[in-house]
Amino acid sequence: MYILVFNCGSSSAKYQIFDIARRELLAKGIVERIGDPHAESTLTHHKTGCTAFSKTFPCGNHYLAIKDIIEVLRDADHGVISDISSIMGIGHRVVHGQEEFRESTLITEAVIQSLEKFSELAPLHNPPALAGIMACRDLLKGIPQVAVFDTAFHQTMPPHAFLYGLPYDYYTTYKIRRYGFHGTSHRYVSNEAARLLKRPLSKLRLITCHLGNGCSMAAVDCGTSVDTTMGFTPLEGLLMGTRTGDLDPAAVLYLLEKEGIGLEKMSDLLNKKSGLLGVSGVSNDMRDLVSEARKGNGRASLAIEIFIYRIKKYIGAYYVAMGSLDAVVFTAGIGEHCPWLVARIKKDLRGVVKKTTKFMVVPTDEELLIAQDTYGIVRRTKNAERVRS
Q1: 253-294 pLDDT, tens per residue?
Q2: Is 66 helix (H, G, I), strand (E, B) or coil?
Q3: Does the reported pTM lie above 0.90?
Q4: Which residues are catalytic?
Q5: What domain range is 102 assigned to?
Q6: What is the CATH number for 83?
């Protein structure tokens, strides 16, 4: 029983294929530079237990990328399947499901129409996901597809946590509210933390910290997200690799006037030139900043301190919001590979949280969770069809 998972970005298509019964990853890879007029695309494919294989080829869109991925998966030397009919289902990471999708769902025409409508809320993410879905519908005919949403896990937040202090009509008319992202990662590490702690998730209060180039935290109360740092877009919350995180909106208005720049350039500044990169002036990579800080670079040190401070501030806020705290869980690139950061935060919060509060590092595996959701939904759908027939 094979499940194929896609995560399509604006110029890339990542994929993984699992033997879901064994929870075994068979192969993974990525096509990069899709649609780049100045360079050919590169496909890097890694069959588990084998040396990575790569090739370059002209690839103007996601359809061509996925067509080539399928060919590699079936290749006699590098592939893992002999026939596409062995694929039971296809799971897609979809960033935005607005309020309509509170859980992963089988993709139908109605779902596709909704995703098209939500593209304006995630213009860099939903359109490529849709392109991947449409390509699979054509190239892998008859294989069920499932959408797994970044926003779905946070749909359990209460109104007092997700609403902004804007006139209420802007929520009802435009659905401006906190949505939160990285939901698949927060859900996965919450379940894993419960397993490692040998306690039911329904009896745990956790704070999960997804710290990569994009960063977010979530307050997970007995298995449900009750608050999260990212908001209407992934720009809000923690200081990130290149994103500002929390920022007074008036500062944006002030800069628009003083710098005389348009909305597009302002969006680029806030999303791609700020954060760790903007403060340090050196890099958005924590490894580089640590190296520079050791050399005496004050701005690199300052960027690290802002990063840590905001994490601690949100831990304190979520601890109070939930009333107790069993564990703080760190994951993703920085969270998993910077033990000094976890140790520093644990030390700084000594005397604030209870001594029994655990500080844990749990590697995330969003693709496996997408595969598991896909398998479950496809199996239930097929069983329901058998009953009806």
Answers
A1: 999 999 999 999 999 999 999 999 999 999 999 999 999 999
A2: helix
A3: yes
A4: 150
A5: 2-149
A6: 3.30.420.40
